[in-house]
Amino acid sequence: MAFPYPTITLEEHWLSPSVVEFYATRSRPDPYQETELLKSRRQNLVEFGDIRLKSMRDNQVTLQVVSHAANALALDLETCVQVNDQLAKSFAIAPESFTGFATLPMIDPNAASEELRRCINDLKFVGALIDNNCEGRFYDDPFFWPVFETAQELDVPIYIHPSYNEQTKPLLHDGNYPEAIAQTLGMYVWGWHSENALHILRLFAAGVFDKFPRLKVIIGHMGEMLPFQLDRIIRVAENQWPMAGVKIERGLRKVWDENIWITTSGMFALAPMATVLRQCKHDRILYSVDYPFTKNEWGLQFLKDLRDDDMITDDVLQGIAYKNAEKLLKVKARPLTDEK
């Protein structure tokens, strides 16, 4: 049976020629030339045309929110401006099918704030997607908080995305196995997701959500492991952290329910989804694919499996597919009848 609803996907990527040039000027290959898996996705990362559109239309993606793929180097302002302008121009192939998340120079938070403002006001983007670290630094450092302040002011979400971290890989993921295994452990098998989860907890512990109570943060991959540890973390934060002099005004459950949205990107299994549905308010769950690292076909099949398993009501399914994203991003998914 066909899936009856349009979909909006929020963690969908491309690779800018300006970023490739940025790496070259620093005598570094871009990350998507370094491993066999990432090389295999490079063509579809660079392409922004018929292949992308056909995959979307064949699999009921009526609106794709596009963002730049993860970076191993902190980008400067000039490169970010070029990336955002190129992305906005790329939408001309089908303006009704695309919108964007801004790429920001987090190495310069004041410049990043102004670029976010430009992207929202001038380019009509719907938020920003930022790498999980900036040259190994995490955003619990108040140095980075002007970006959160601006996002709160503009009422747009910040998507915190897993990314390369040369500082943590040697310590945590290199071991008595081939380098190719260490790379996968440090990235998309485990390390990226556990580090992204820890980053959210660092923001919470540092009081970011007390300082910016209306900040909207999106994380992918069914919550980057957090739904499975959430109750334990809440208990420790409430009962033990005050002994160390740390008292967060807005507790983790409140932050989780009011400030965090999660997407399904790249995670298409019913067992973890059952936990997500019990741990998250249903209007905070968003459908995403993680194109082109995973396939739109897999995402659509997951939605069908979710429907056929009778795990959720039809209203909740519609919310996950597109309605929750419409509300968060202030966009509209075109009905399936508009698809060509």
Automatic annotation (TrEMBL):
Report one GO cellular component.
cytosol
Residues of the Amidohydrolase-related domain:
74-330
**InterPro entries annotated for this entry?**
ACMSD, Amidohydro-rel, Metal_Hydrolase
One Gene Ontology MF term = carboxy-lyase activity
One Pfam assignment: Amidohydro_2
Write the record's keywords in alphabetical order, separated by commas. Decarboxylase, Lyase
Give the residue range of the signal peptide: none
- Supply one GO BP term: secondary metabolic process
Which PANTHER family does UniProt cross-reference here? 2-AMINO-3-CARBOXYLMUCONATE-6-SEMIALDEHYDE DECARBOXYLASE, AMIDOHYDROLASE-RELATED DOMAIN-CONTAINING PROTEIN-RELATED
The family note in this entry says:
Belongs to the metallo-dependent hydrolases superfamily.
- The molecule here is called Amidohydrolase-related domain-containing protein
Tell me the lineage of the source organism: Eukaryota, Fungi, Dikarya, Ascomycota, Pezizomycotina
